Amino acid sequence: MRTKLVCLSNLTTPALPFCPPSLLLLFLTFPSALLRTHRFPPHVWRELDSIRSRLPSVGTRTPVTEAPPSTQSSTEPCLVLSLRAPSLAVMAADSAPNISLPASLDDARIRGMPLAAYYIPDFLSADEERAILDRIASVPKPRWTQLTHRRLQTWPSELIQNRLVDAPLPDWLNDPVVSRLQSIPISLDPDTGHIFSSSPHCQPNHVLINEYPPGIGIMPHKDGAAYHPTVCTVSLGSSLVLDIYKSKNDGALDTTPVCRVLQEPRSLLITTEDLYTDYLHGIADVDEDLDLSETTVANWGLLRSKQPFVDGRNPRGLRTSLTYRDVLKVTKLGNKFSILQKR
Ligand SMILES: O=C(O)CCC(=O)C(=O)O
Ligand SMILES: [Fe+2]
């Protein structure tokens, strides 16, 4: 497999928080045991190891070029050094050769929304989408909670009184989604982090998987106090429209959405801040979304392709969403036992 390493105008970025450029290059060239003492988070070590394992001879035989990755035609592994790209592309380019992520979330900002929201159309490749859908389909039946019209899975577990019992997400939910989320800086300003940098655990610790057959949606709602106010939703399978509503002053719901977001399969939608606390979101129970156009869809300009929607319609298919959030309160299992023992 071809490996691309895009490097590095700014290596003191969130995905490599402690890594100066020279150290990364040194590691790739001479991965001595001494460097192991450097305090990278485990996912960074894994990523660096994986990059290295696919480079036959970094720094000697490997071609070094300033050309952008897309112009590389060789099928041989190669090291691409580009001083134009931000360092975070190192992770993204290597772990998803067919994916081209924005250099920062600034480039993915949904301008037609009242507050901070971002849309990245091809956040996952088709192969990654298939692999995740296969994993979802292969979990034992009792893992599903069947609601009247849709079903859901909750990972690592359901919340109890707004608390999560501490447990890691399974690998297939972490990688590639979480590592990729953490690889995109909010802006190119070196002081800004990634979208979960300011959340209590610096990463999502909870994933809700919702499966919507055609004609089925979810009532307008707010996500409540259990989570840090950043929601990352990965859409799989087919497209649908998410409606955003504002409460009226008397608390009633204004039934006309303030804006609509069209979510294509493999896309990522991030909503944050007041959009979390002051607005509601919902999905209509319709067999097709109608009246889709540049003026009615907030993220129209960011879509992967407008072509499927040129007649303004989106016939619904089976759509699966993965909602990544950081639960604020986490209980260690050990604490649980000690609470029980005291009773
Ligand atoms: O499926 C979606 O896009 C929305 C899911 C949602 O709002 C929720 O689980 O709270
Ligand atoms: Fe929600």
TrEMBL record:
Gene3D superfamilies associated with the record: Alpha-ketoglutarate-dependent dioxygenase AlkB-like (2.60.120.590)
Pfam families per record: 2OG-FeII_Oxy_2 (PF13532)
Cellular localisation: Nucleus
Fe2OG dioxygenase domain residues: 203-328
Alphabetized UniProt keyword annotations: Dioxygenase, Iron, Metal-binding, Nucleus, Oxidoreductase
Coiled-coil zones: none
Superkingdom field: Eukaryota
Primary localization class, coarse: nucleus
PROSITE patterns xref list: FE2OG_OXY (PS51471)
PANTHER family tied to this protein: ALPHA-KETOGLUTARATE-DEPENDENT DIOXYGENASE ALKB HOMOLOG 6 (PTHR46030:SF1)
Similarity-based family: Belongs to the alkB family.
Protein name from the UniProt record: Fe2OG dioxygenase domain-containing protein
Organism name: Apiospora hydei
